[in-house]
Structure formats: C-alpha cells, structure tokens
Amino acid sequence: MSTFRALVVNKTDESFTVGIETLSLDDLPEGEVTIRVAYSSVNYKDGLAVIPNGKILTRYPMIPGIDLAGTVVRSTDPRFKEGDEVIATSYDIGVSHEGGFSEYARVKTDWVVPLPEGLTLKEAMALGTAGLTAALSVHELEAHDITPDKGPVLVTGATGGVGSLAVAMLAKRGYHVVASTGKETEHGYLHQLGAREIIHRQELTPEKIRPLDKRRWAGAVDPVGGKTLAYVLSTMDHGGAIAVSGLTGGTEVNTTVFPFILRGVKLLGIDSAYCPMELRRTIWKRLASDLKPDHLADITEEITLDQLPETLDLILQGKLRGRKVVNLQ
C-alpha cells in the first residue's frame, strides 16, 4: 500500500487541528520495524494529546496513540521478521514518535514485544497500556506481600480502563475487591468483573482527611491520585501498599508521614511508559495467562478510526467505561 490513513494532530501559532489524513510510508519516522497496525486503543493520555493544552505531544504535526498491535511488514533487525505479530506500547510512541492511530507504524526494535501465546492482536489492545499498568500494579502488590488473605483491596476509578482491568485481574487472583465509582448505573458491570463490594467515590474524598483514619484496606490500585490518594493513605492497614498510576483526580497529594512510619504503608509508583523490557515481557506473558481477565470481551468495545475523535473527547469527560479498541484493518 502506497498510502494509508491516520489521525493527525497539528498546532501552529494560528490554529490547532485534529483530523484523519492520508499519508505515505515516507511520512513515517525512522525505526527498524515497520508494522501494519491491526488495532490500537484509547487511553486518557491519548485524550490529552488531542487538546491544545494537553501537554503530551512534544512536536507537531503528530500521529498520537500510545498503543498498537499488528504484523511486521519490514524489519532491518534480525530479532523480528516479516509476518511476526507484535505489540508496541508507550516509550515515545504517540508522544514524540508517530503513534498507533494509523494503519501503518514504524518504531524502534527496542520498543517491540512479540505477541505472547494466549493473546490475539485485538485482545492485546483491549489490554494495551491500561492493561499493562493494571498488571504492573497487581504484580507490585504481590511482590510486596499483599496476598488475598491479607484483606480487601481497593480499586479507585473502577470503571475506567486501568480500574476495570485491575478489578478483573485481582478478582481472578482471588482477592476481595472493593471497587470505587461515582457511576451508580455501573454497579452491575463491576460485579460482573468480580468486585465484591462497591463504594461511591465521594466516600474517598471526605471534607476533612485525618492523618490516620480507620484501617480499611490491605492494598489498593489507584489510577486517580489527588485527594483520593490522600484519604486512601490514611485508611491503609498495617503493612499495606498502594500502587499509584494516575492523576485524573489531581497531581497534588496532601498527606503526612504517619501512614508510612506508624503503619508501614508502601506507596508504589507504577511507570508503564518506561517499564524495562525484561519486566515488560514478563508482564505481557502474565497478561496472556494468569492475569488475563475472564471478562475481557465484556470490558471492550470496538470503534473505527473515524469514530476516534469523538471517543477521545468522551474519555476526557469521564464518560467511557472499560476499553475502546480502534480497528485499523
């Protein structure tokens, strides 16, 4: 194919545009691996990339999309060959390097993961960066001895991409999952994913947060941050741990040292963007096996490239549930 379609964001002193454009392979950046993209996915970070003040893209014009999965059509590196099915997420993809909202992509070999046995290309993007982040969160909680017998594990922002997948993964691993959401219409959805309890998100943002409050959680997966994280810190059990990966609730956390020095609480930062490749491959293998959600299809809705701009707007409004997969075939 000499030409292909992609979502392009452009910004000049006079204007800001987001739209579908027809490009050629010569428009793609340098990289050892050229991929015919089958699917991409929609993340909160992608939503920020298509607004003027999102502070995600480092240059313009740019094809956003931090996730992609597809088939290698050309490789100058012997680690991959034509016909290999692969995944590429995060690093500079969709930020300073042309991304996954495109029918073709060219990336660095060091960013590419072979599709593990047990996953299809579509399932890989139903997971995407959100799934990688959720799985890293569960992996880190387990590494810090947060086991199902220790007590309830809280998931904040539970109807979002990371939250939905974390609920499903933790439930599959046998945890007592408490899901937090402000969407009362989604309780059935969260129970279906495996949540045993559901609480309203307002319960996690009281007007006054004590330095230490009643112990409630053995662990937590928090893609929200802000005031929510401050309250969760104050209500962790002794030896508890919180895997933090997001900022939809704000970047500032007003807390004290007391949860850390009086209860031994651990705050675990989850960085899926620059996760080392060895760990990344390990997590993708787990995503194809013991951490693969039982209800992945129920979490996923497929959209087209033409539907993408509207979907990106909805994710910024907090109106999406689960995962949106972009079909680029």
TrEMBL record:
UniProt xrefs under InterPro entries: Acrylyl-CoA_reductase_AcuI (IPR014188), ADH-like_C (IPR013149), ADH-like_N (IPR013154), ER (IPR020843), GroES-like_sf (IPR011032), NAD(P)-bd_dom_sf (IPR036291), Zn-ADH-like_protein (IPR051397)
Full protein name: Acryloyl-CoA reductase
Top-rank taxon: Bacteria
EC number annotated for this UniProt entry: 1.3.1.95
Residues annotated as domain Enoyl reductase (ER): 19-326
UniProtKB keywords: Oxidoreductase
Molecular function, one GO term: acryloyl-CoA reductase (NADPH) activity
Organism lineage: Bacteria, Bacillati, Bacillota, Bacilli, Bacillales
Pfam families, sorted: ADH_N (PF08240), ADH_zinc_N (PF00107)
Record-linked PANTHER family: ACRYLYL-COA REDUCTASE ACUI-RELATED, SHORT-CHAIN DEHYDROGENASE/REDUCTASE
Parts of the chain that traverse the membrane: none
SUPFAM superfamilies assigned to the protein according to its UniProt record, in alphabetical order: GroES-like (SSF50129), NAD(P)-binding Rossmann-fold domains (SSF51735)
CDD domains given in the database record: MDR_yhfp_like
